Amino acid sequence: MIDIQNVVKRFKSNKQEITAVDHVSLSIKKGEIFGVIGYSGAGKSTLIRMINLLETPTEGKVILDGTDLSALSTKALRQKRQKIGMIFQHFNLLWSRTVKENIMFPLEIAGVPKAKREQRAQELIRLVELDGKEDQYPSQLSGGQKQRVGIARALANDPHVLLCDEATSALDPKTTDSILDLLKEINRRLGLTIVLITHEMHVIRKICDRVAVMEGGRVVEVGDVTDIFQRPQQEITKRFVQQVTKSDEILSAAADWQVDQGWVVECRFMGEVAGKPVISQLIRQFDIEVNILQGKISRLKDSSYGTLVIQVTGEEAEIKRAIGHLKSLGVGVEVLAS
Ligand SMILES: Nc1ncnc2c1ncn2[C@@H]1O[C@H](COP(=O)(O)OP(=O)(O)OP(=O)(O)O)[C@@H](O)[C@H]1O
Fold this sequence. Notes:
The chain has two domains: 231 residues, 3-Layer(aba) Sandwich (Rossmann fold); 92 residues, ACT domain (Alpha-Beta Plaits, 2-Layer Sandwich), CATH 3.30.70.260. Strands 6-7-8-3-9-10 form a six-stranded mixed sheet, with helices on both faces. It has a four-stranded antiparallel sheet with strand order 2-1-4-5, covered by helices on one side. A four-stranded antiparallel sheet has the order 12-13-11-14. It is elongated and about 80 Å long. The chain starts with a strand and ends with a strand. Helix 5 runs parallel beside helix 6. It is built from twelve helices and 14 strands. The chain is an alpha/beta fold. Adenosine-5'-triphosphate binds next to strand 1, strand 2 and helix 1.
């Protein structure tokens, strides 16, 4: 659906050259929610803006539904862009227009007749649950409601792809969740492909099917969200996963855990193994004691993921055997202190 092929973007400023995106290749499937995560300056915005050619790649190609975007004439590109909706961190609404007028604006540009525009705007207002707000101005709306207008406007021309540029970064956690639920619902109902960029693993965890991790302009890791949570490879990915799997209490307690007694071990459960009485079996099978220090269950888009921090005491060789057994069951194990 979206093929990003060896894309590079360099910016020249003050005689300096910055490589914002450095040889990135990604293949995004039709109907999936694909997330790109990275810290500030990683190149996420530049990358997502190359998907609709708001930024032109210095090298490489972006192929959308089989069409090389950079090979299109200005007119053909404008038409193609109507099928790529975009929403932004700061909503980018027209402040002098009402909710309905904002939503009708892209239809006006596309030359859709007035009656049809009105009808479509009403449908979209219902979809994003803004009934009753159609004649209000953006300044009269909450942040979440403004983003709902942004989403409705982005969907006006029935796009195949929705690009989300840090769409929830300006919102509080509860509103963030309601906007993420809406995006998930739109993806499910309309089969829309969604590409989002974020610096929050919570966003990836809640709605994405796959994720790419960016650092210094490069994609350093890519995979299914469930796999990335279970087996993060790169240091940066591990840090992002920790954002949601390790509570602040675990992180601060980790510094204090004493090593004088046994080992402190973090176990990560996902899928089938999460439903099994693994710890009670462990105590029965091995000559060890287990003390539960912390536990947390996180919901992913379609599954759940649990972390449990335990203190294991006993003979070192027996602890090692018990840990080996946990690993053989598919439990992710990390020794935090020994
Ligand atoms: N128009 C531009 N001119 C010059 N440098 C730019 C331009 N746009 C981005 N950059 C630089 O490219 C690098 C990547 O920026 P980009 O905005 O894509 O990163 P990001 O991951 O989206 O970060 P943030 O979340 O802070 O926006 C940064 O070093 C940035 O300063």
